[in-house]
Amino acid sequence: MDKVAALVADILAFIAMEPPQEEQQPEGGEGGSIDAQFNALALRLFTHQYTSNPAYRTFCQRRGATLRSVQRWTDIPAVPIDAFKAMELRCEPPRPDERVFMTSGTTRGGEVRGRHFHPQLDVYDMSMARNFQRRFMRGAGPMPMGILFPDEHLMPNSSLAHYLALAKDVFGSPVSRHFVGTHGMHVVSLCSALEAAERTGTPYALLGASYSFVHLMESLHQRGRRFKLPPGSRVLDTGGYKGQSREVPPEEFYAGLSYMLGVPRELCINMYGMTELSTQFYDDGNARVPSVKSGPHWIRSRLVDPATGRDVPPGERGILVHCDLANYNSVTTILTEDVGEWADGGFLLLGRAEGAQAKGCSMAVQDFMRAAGK
């Protein structure tokens, strides 16, 4: 077994471990064995990515980070998320069977999409399934699932399409299906599925992009329809609105979902993820908003000043940095453009960077581009 294969095997074994009771700690303690194992794997990954990607190595050196100086996962320089749009961040060379997930974002220069290269999906899929089982299924067995997003045959470069297809295939019962296709949402068919769940008392799960749920609620309102789905039914939304629907404040959004579908807000769960990561964050329902997001034991987060990369003082808001061990082929540590604040059990997601924070994110991108010779 070569070094990369051994590293991947150890990451898979770490993900497969039973999660500790205390997850997603702030930047602090590394006292437990899980934390020590996380740190050791993060440093092995840093060594692999530092030696395999010259542009990343140069960036790290500009930040004063070398294989000798990086002693903890918190020392690993965070790559700004827009770097995925500017260059290929990969350790392994291209191969014909790799999967490439692409962002939907644009820049002033035209359509520029960030790309995340996956030589194999073993790590991504285990990361998704282990986390999804615990945070969304919560011990429930296979259930009928309605997917409010196109399938991955229509959107092969969408990480969300793959995520939702995996949810349906692994955790959905045989009647599970997609209700969004090339011609939009199949509302009549979806209503029939929801009626069947009501009639039989079978818990039902609806999953999709947040904007799809806005369209669904508007369509149900126009039809004068409401549902009272059986106990144990649940909803998962993700991805925001991205100009695909009207913006709905969180309180109105989750109140509307609960009212229209008869699902308690404690089972209206939001997933926070991104193309540039291989692991997702969840809340424990949206009875209150904003909800607290947290991740599994193979991802850690920090709150930083984007201009300096340093942690913000306790109690202050900062830009989220995530260190994801499932990102074995790109870079583990990502500087997002999302504002966060620590909360009991995880963090609050407070929107996109603006003002000085947005400027700091832009400076970080410029610094990376200079290091990469772009």
From TrEMBL:
Q: Name the SUPFAM superfamilies for this protein.
A: Acetyl-CoA synthetase-like (SSF56801)
- Specify the protein name: Acyl-protein synthetase, LuxE
One GO BP: bioluminescence
Pfam families associated with the record: LuxE
Region described as Disordered: spans on this chain: 95-114
Specify the Acyl-protein synthetase LuxE domain's residue ranges.
38-366
Q: Which residues cross the membrane?
A: none
- Source species of the chain: Paracidovorax wautersii
**What Gene Ontology molecular function terms does this protein carry?**
long-chain fatty acid--protein ligase activity
Q: Which domain of life is it from?
A: Bacteria
